[in-house]
Amino acid sequence: MKSIQSQLIAYFTVAILVPATITSIVGMKLIYNQVITRAESKTLSDLNSAREIYRNKIASIESITRLTAVRSLIIQALIAKDRAFLKRDLPKTLRREHLDILTIVDNDGIVVCRGRSPDVAGDNLLRDEYVSRAIRDRQVTVGTDLVPREELLKESPDLAAQALMDITPTPKAKARVDQLETSGMMLKAAVPVFDENNTLQGVLLGGILLNRNFEIVDKIKEVVHEHEVYKGREIGSATIFQNDLRISTNVKNQDGSRAIGTLVSEEVRTATLQKGERFVGEAFVVNSWYIAAYEPIRDLNNRIIGILYVGILKSPFDDALTDTLITFLGIALGGMALVIFVSIQIAKKFSRPLKDLEHAAKQIADGEYNHEIAVRAPLEIQHLASSLMQMSKKLEIEKGELEEWANTLERKVHERTEEIKKIHLQLFRSEKLASLGKLAAGVAHEINNPLTGILTNSSLLLEDFPANDPHREDCEIIVKETIRCREIVKRLLDFAKQTKPQKKLTNVNALIENISLLVRNQASFRNINIEKILAPNLPEVWADTDQIQQVFINIILNAAEAMTKGGTLTIESALSHEGDSLLVSFADTGPGISESDRERIFDPFFTTKEYGTGLGLSISYGIIEQHGGTINVESCLGKGSKFIIKLPTTGEADEQ
What we know:
- By secondary structure, the protein is an alpha+beta fold.
- Helices cover 52% and strands 20% of the residues.
- It folds into two domains: 1-349, Beta-Lactamase (2-Layer Sandwich); 499-655, Histidine kinase-like ATPase, C-terminal domain (Heat Shock Protein 90).
- The mean pLDDT is 83.
């Protein structure tokens, strides 16, 4: 006969083992389905975001082409067939707006000028669906198109080379007979060009080649997946397919290179390219399994010409499932141990030790981790009491660690939030400067000619007035104010151009010394003491010397204007703690800047001066940003202001 203790152990073991096994199997299945379903739902949401980014890029091309097509100089040049002007203007616009093609045709579809290859003209583009629709419907036509190699060669041999790619055999993909792809996939916008009488004069065609262009897919990954990494691999990826061929992707090969030229799996190819359906689920991508979402890309005639894809690695979910299984088994085993313990206690009927342990456990649950447990009972119960004390001590230690971790996490979240705010502010300022730059250029060009006429005629008129003529003073005021307007227009044009820096190795300390010599004898600096604290042996930086000098002079002159009654201007240079940046600061003892003005000080046209244009610091901000640096201001009312410029010390000659 077995003892009661052994029978209770056996019965309770079976009673806990069977339900635990069934619960684990069913629970794992439910959890797996729930996790995969949520992952697929998130991937589908990511696909919607990717589609919006893709469409926004098309809309951006449309906007650029529209703005170019309504320019009066472009319209006049098209009407007059002024190819000399178009050969100058279109290439500049194409480079400035980062387009791959910018071609203008007349209302018969004949090419007048190509922005990328100005000398290739005279061929007929009516066979281009976008051009023909824009001429026929007199409306803007945008979308995605497949461009044959011969058309790419007309635009530029570089574009044809960019589109040309070898087809790489890919696991689980349908093999292709051809081994080379020659055509390219392009985002296009065809905008009708009308004269002032609303008569169609032609079409302006703009576009960007997607082959080996990673802007869209990298932006999708950045926005949707935020560069999240799992075990050294980026979790998220995005791809644009031309038919079944990867032409733009951040999916990586085993060697870490982008998987350009690889093929989509046959399962996805059948669903998207043949059936025209959206595919959401598990898919094999190049060399790994992903939770993926694909949808067809169609041209103007609703033909499927490609696929848009986003996905996340499946391995994190598999690992999470394994961890969950281990947790379930651990819980089951823990339950079995507890049941066996209870059966032993019931068999021996040692209720008092159990009550003592229960009381101790409640105290631990209430947070009294230092409670001493002392029971008089058999060895097993004493061991249990000892383990409970060890657990209490470990809980106390882990509680302290968790509290410390929580405090650290809160601090890091706060720091990250502040970093994100700064990044958002910089992005907002950059976008504002770019938009206002275009507006400023347009306004400056429109008023420059009338100002020239006014200045010329008023100057001639001034010469005709004798010295004692009562109207001579009025005419002198006209000339003076017109010259001031011309200077404002020049500042507007400087602000709008945002010229690319012509970088060379520059000694910042020497530049500061030269500027000090330039300004120290000016009238505004007679009552100002310039102190220089320049760190020796600073590394030279790659910079446009003229532009950086313009920034330094702007800040120094602003400081002098702020210290109308005299003061001290302190100029310091130093190397950052990390050693990757050069810090230059300009501190004055002027009246300081109010908090409300500090938030707007770099905004274009904001000024507190009676006759200022408000462009000096805006231009300086743009110059420093183009150098990869930052410019910030610290100020306290009544104590002065300090401008801090940070320039990177890293750079290469090819950045010039």
